[in-house]
Design brief:
The protein is an all-beta fold. It has seven domains: about 110 residues, Sandwich (Immunoglobulin-like), CATH 2.60.40; about 90 residues, Immunoglobulins (Immunoglobulin-like, Sandwich); about 100 residues, Sandwich (Immunoglobulin-like); about 90 residues, Immunoglobulins (Immunoglobulin-like, Sandwich), CATH 2.60.40.10; about 110 residues, Immunoglobulin-like (Sandwich), CATH 2.60.40.3210; about 80 residues, Immunoglobulin-like; about 120 residues, Zona pellucida, ZP-N domain (Immunoglobulin-like). The protein has two helices and 60 strands. The strands form 14 sheets. Strands 51, 54, 57, 58, 59 and 60 form a six-stranded mixed β-sheet that branches. Strands 10-16-15-12-13 form a five-stranded mixed β-sheet, with no helix packed on it. It has a five-stranded mixed β-sheet with strand order 26-33-32-28-29, with no helix packed on it. The chain is globular, with a radius of gyration of 35 Å. It starts with a strand and ends with a strand.
């Protein structure tokens, strides 16, 4: 067994190389972790195990020696034991590893000392008299070593846990224990922060409901209790269950307690009415009694919760709320799968929705297949051996739910030729220091690590993650054969090749499978930040709608307005222009272009923003400019909501970019009716017929009319208010039925 240690800026990584023949036999029998059991390897294949830990996590121990800081941990491998095997026949393996850092360097890279609120007690901790409660404080970052204590009345009552930045203490909950507690943390740079906590006694007759949350789904209902609201609710002192005492919490940690049940289990009570059906249950916390300690001042606590469903949206039970049965094509094999012969290919059919139970079968040529077929929930898997010609052909997955709804999914397995492989299932994410490549095994099910070598141009860079659905590999920009060339003065282009080639034993030649090549290309834009040259991955050219002008702009005559177009991504150089009637009004090289104008009546029309990048990718954005005659807008300009008692008018400010609330204002016919103004909208809400509204009556209907006036503020220009623009609107109602039956529109 060989090992290699990588000491990163804020992590340590251990790579262990094992004997392949021995590893294949025992891989599934081993339990692997660091000092903390939840820290497990993030990469395991047939020859290597890789595990990583942050410098201040996973049980990593820290030791300061003069000018250096040493971080150490242990990687453990041992055989799994249980009911079927009580004794381990393979000796445990422990690999110790450590990294040494310069003390000054560690101080510089550490973030400022902060309180970890998620793992700390709140400022107010409530409990019943005599019921113990736990106080916790956790801190993160800071220049190590960090000292953490809990202080009460200037006396240290608890010290940090060994090798961590956490401290906790259990307080009995007696009269002498109520009051203030202080957590103090100080790092090696003498940076100090504190966290105040206060234990308060609560009234036994009152239980807060602020920390209770009920979630209703189509299958089950769930109750979540926030333990920062109920810190006294500890499994050590309470026996917790639903009405059926066999239904207990399925998740309990420092922050939450979660319990859930289906609508037909755990003695859930059903109550039907003419309008809805209600499902109710109670989460009960019963005080545990013991001979050692009897708690007499704490009551049993009940948390009732319920889910209600409307009869109009369901039939007899909430199970009718299921979505329709459909094929989930994103998690299924594509319609046509091409594979080389002599591979074991796995086809996948995935469905979603439907009324359970959902049954799935596989057919070929009208005959049902069972050999190699496995169904798990709503997913069907089938393994096919392409050594036989009969394996190729068309397969059909048929799913049927409890209501008899049937959905079919067809997959055709074809034999691949030398030039049949494309990059359909290839996904490349361009990062600042590496290229992240993922290849779908749903599209290429023959990508079998046991039969193929998979690597980049340099053969020592192999795939680092295999699952049933994808192969993942990362290529550094400065390694694995990656070539980076300057495409132009703005762009660098990095290229590599993912290669899949057959494993050929000595004396055996495989002729039916060629080497498969997947070209990898990433383009980076050269930018400057803080005097340093940075590489930014180039994304697809798109419009930034939030920073660009609206699709429709209303403007009075001779009012200075700005047409603005902002784009994101794209490969430089990017050319941007604004044109009208195919005649350019403005142009610029970059991603932002603005055009200032004072429109006249003849300037009405469509203005088009047009951007093209070096890849000839084109994006357009249309801006319709409307200059109303006499500065009056009819039939459009605002959104109207006609209610039975109120009328709401909403003006979108993006349609009026020239409107400036500092020197302009909006009001209705009655100037006293002022709007609510924010960064995006100006809205009025007023009683029907109020704010200067006028009405027109006939034998069948009543029409209420009003208008939004945009004016200069009196103190802005001499001579009083000056009207800039008017927006006319109306609400129409049936006369016989009062305003409850209405239609809405503009005058």
């Amino acid at each position: 067994m060989q090992s290699r240690i990588t000491c990163g800026k804020n992590f340590m990584q251990l790579d262990v190389k094992l004997n392949p023949n021995f590893w294949r036999r025992i891989q599934t029998k081993l339990e692997m972790h660091l000092n903390y059991k939840y820290c497990k390897p993030f990469f395991v294949n047939s020859t290597h195990v890789t595990i990583r830990t942050p410098l201040y996590g996973c049980g990593t121990k820290m030791e300061v020696i003069k000018d250096h800081v040493i971080f150490s941990n242990f990687f453990t491998m041992k055989e799994k034991t249980g009911v079927s095997q009580l004794v381990s026949f393979i000796p445990d393996v422990e690999v110790g590893f450590r990294c040494t850092y310069d003390k000054k360097r560690i101080t510089l890279v550490s973030a400022p000392l902060q309180l970890d609120k998620l793992h700390s007690s709140p400022k107010e901790v409530t409990t019943y008299y005599g019921l113990p409660v736990e106080l916790r404080c956790a801190f993160k970052y800071g220049a190590p070593p960090v000292r953490v204590v809990i202080v009460r009345k200037e006396k240290i009552i608890a010290n940090q846990e060994n090798g961590t930045q956490k401290v906790k203490i259990t307080v009995e909950g007696l009269n002498k224990d109520y009051g203030s507690y202080t957590c103090v943390a100080e790092d090696v740079n003498n940076n100090k922060i504190t966290h105040q906590m206060e234990i308060k006694k609560i009234d036994p007759s009152y239980i807060s409901t602020e920390g209770k949350k009920t979630t209703c789904t189509r299958d089950e209902m769930q109750l979540t209790l926030n333990r920062s609201t109920y810190p006294w609710l500890q499994p050590k002192y309470f026996d917790m269950h639903l009405l059926d005492n066999s239904c207990r919490p399925y998740h309990v940690n420092f922050t939450h307690i979660v319990v859930k049940t289906t609508y037909g289990n755990c003695k859930t009570v059903v109550k039907n009415s003419s309008h809805d059906v209600t499902y109710r249950n109670i989460f009960m916390a019963m005080v545990r009694t013991s001979s050692a300690k009897v708690i007499t001042r704490v009551p049993n606590v009940w948390f009732p919760f319920q889910c209600r469903f409307d009869h109009t949206k369901m039939e007899s039970t909430p199970f009718k709320l299921y979505e329709p049965l459909t094929a989930d094509k994103s998690k299924s094999s594509p319609m046509i799968v091409k594979s080389y012969k002599r591979f074991k290919v796995r086809l996948v059919c995935t469905f979603k929705g439907g009324v359970p139970p959902v049954t799935i079968i596989l057919t070929k040529g009208g005959r049902r297949l069972t050999q190699g077929v496995v169904v798990k929930r709503k997913v069907l898997y089938v393994k096919l051996n392409t050594s036989h010609r009969a394996a190729f052909g068309s397969y059909e997955c048929i799913a049927t739910d409890a209501k008899g709804n049937r959905v079919k999914q067809r997959i055709t397995l074809q034999r691949a030729g030398a030039n049949d492989i494309t990059s359909d299932g290839l996904t490349v994410k361009c990062k600042s220091q590496y290229m992240d490549i993922s290849i779908s095994r749903l599209v290429y099910p023959w990508l079998d690590p046991n039969l193929l070598h998979m690597n980049f141009i340099q053969s020592n860079c192999t795939a680092n993650s295999f699952t049933d659905t994808y192969v993942r590999i990362q290529a550094p920009l400065a390694g694995c054969g990656t070539k980076t060339l300057r495409k132009n003065e703005f762009v660098l282009e990095s290229r590599n090749m993912f290669i899949a080639r057959p494993k050929r034993p000595r004396g055996f030649s495989i002729t039916y499978l060629p080497n498969i090549y997947f070209p990898i290309v990433c383009a980076y834009e050269i930018t400057q930040f803080a005097g340093k040259t940075m590489l930014k991955a180039i994304e697809t050219l798109t419009l930034d709608a939030s920073e660009s002008s609206s699709n429709t702009i209303f403007s009075p005559q001779n009012m200075a307005i700005k047409l603005r177009c902002v784009f994101q991504g794209g490969e430089p150089p990017i050319q941007v222009r604004i044109s009208r009637l195919n005649k350019a009004k403005a142009h610029e090289q970059g991603r932002v272009l603005s055009f200032v104008m004072k429109p006249r009546i003849q300037d009405n029309g469509l203005y088009v923003c047009w951007a093209i990048d070096a890849r000839n990718k084109t994006v357009t954005h249309g801006i319709t400019l409307k200059v109303p005659v006499n500065r009056v807008i009819f039939n459009k300009g605002a959104r109207i909501e006609c209610g039975s008692q109120f009328t709401t008018t909403i003006v979108t400010r993006a349609n009026y970019p020239w409107f400036n609330p500092r020197c302009m204002r909006m009001h209705l016919n009655d100037p006293g009716c002022r709007p609510y103004v924010n960064n995006t909208h100006v809205s009025f809400k007023f009683p029907l017929g109020a704010c200067g509204s006028r009405h027109i009556t006939s034998s069948r209907k009543v029409i209420f009319t009003n208008r939004v006036l945009i004016v200069n503020k009196p103190d802005y220009k001499e001579g009083g208010e000056k009207s800039i623009m008017e927006i006319h609107f109306y609400c129409k109602y049936r006369r016989t039925d009062s305003p409850n039956h209405k239609t809405k529109g503009f005058l």
